[in-house]
Amino acid sequence: QVQLVESGGGLVQAGGSLRLSCAASGSINSFSAMGWYRQAPGNQREMVATITRNDATNYADSVKGRFTISRDNAKNTMYLQMNSLKPDDTAVYYCNAKRLVIATTYDYWGQGTQVTVSS
Question: In 3-state terms, what secondary structure has residue 112?
Fold first, then answer.
């Protein structure tokens, strides 16, 4: 059973920084990709950033140049460094991991961590 545990959320003023962590219960090398998603009240969950096993990254336009996704295979942990935070970044942030088995992709989610940016 895969477990993903996020940490690092909190309250920060606009312009500030936070670093989110996602610790996996097993080797993250088993995942074809990992990513961060967020959901604000009344909105659908949206992709923030993803990173593949080969370290290819992808970012939502709204966070490009401000957020950086990375992974540490030795620690089985993924990170999201968030700089120049804006009130619009306020949301619950979820860690996601994808595992490809034969022709089926399995999705795993963490419980979420709240990020609140005050103006």
Answer: coil
- Quick: pLDDT tens for 11-50: 999 999 999 999 999 899 999 999 999 999 999 999 999 9
Q: Residue 117: name the closest of 36, 37, 40, 7 by CA.
A: 40
DSSP 76: T
Decide if 9 contacts 115 (C-beta within 8 A): yes
> What string of DSSP letters covers 1-69?
---EEEE--EEEETT--EEEEEEESS-GGG-SEEEEEEE-TTS--EEEEEEETT--EEE-GGGTTTEEE
Backbone angles phi, psi at 50, to 5 degrees: -135, 155
